[in-house]
Amino acid sequence: MISFEFDDGAQKPGVPYRAIFFVNGWHYGKRVGNVGPQARFPVPPGILDYQGTNTLAVALWALEDTPVNPTLKLVLDGAFEGGVGAVTKNNPRWAPRAGVY
């Protein structure tokens, strides 16, 4: 079990910024720095490819002139032995769409 976690670090609490992020082409979360408490976003097996390459895209914008520099880190929530076996991932890889700019 793995999560992505925003860490605002030493910034004053409630810095107004917004961020959205995508994991392997899936819109996976939205962070509103000065409103919501959610900073951790769990990503289940099947979205992340544990044996391959993953793509993470983040759009971050500040809503004031205050500098914004949160970090986004990958956090291991827990490791368990057993389960249902290997999880197959059949999601198509991201590729640019023709004619869309």
Description:
It contains no helices and 6 strands. The model has no long low-confidence stretch (mean pLDDT 80). The protein is flat and about 50 Å long. The protein has 101 residues and is mainly β. A hairpin with a 2-residue loop joins strand 2 and strand 3. The strands form 2 sheets. The chain has a 3-stranded antiparallel sheet, with no helix packed on it. Strands 3-2-5 form a 3-stranded antiparallel sheet, with no helix packed on it. It has one domain: Galactose-binding domain-like (Jelly Rolls, Sandwich), CATH 2.60.120.260.
Task: Give the helix/strand layout.
Elements: E1 2-7, E2 17-23, E3 26-32, E4 40-43, E5 56-62, E6 71-76
Antiparallel strand pairs: 1-4, 1-6, 2-3, 2-5
Summarize the biggest pleated sheet. 3 strands, antiparallel
* Percentage of residues assigned to helices: under 10%
The span between the termini is 36 Å
Order of helices and strands: EEEEEE
Unreliable stretches = none
Within CATH, the superfamily carries the name: Galactose-binding domain-like
What is the radius of gyration computed over CA atoms, rounded to a whole number of angstroms?
Answer: 16 Å
Q: Give the tally of β-strands.
A: 6
Range of strand content: 35-45%
Number of domains: 1
Oligomer: single chain
The total of helices stands at 0
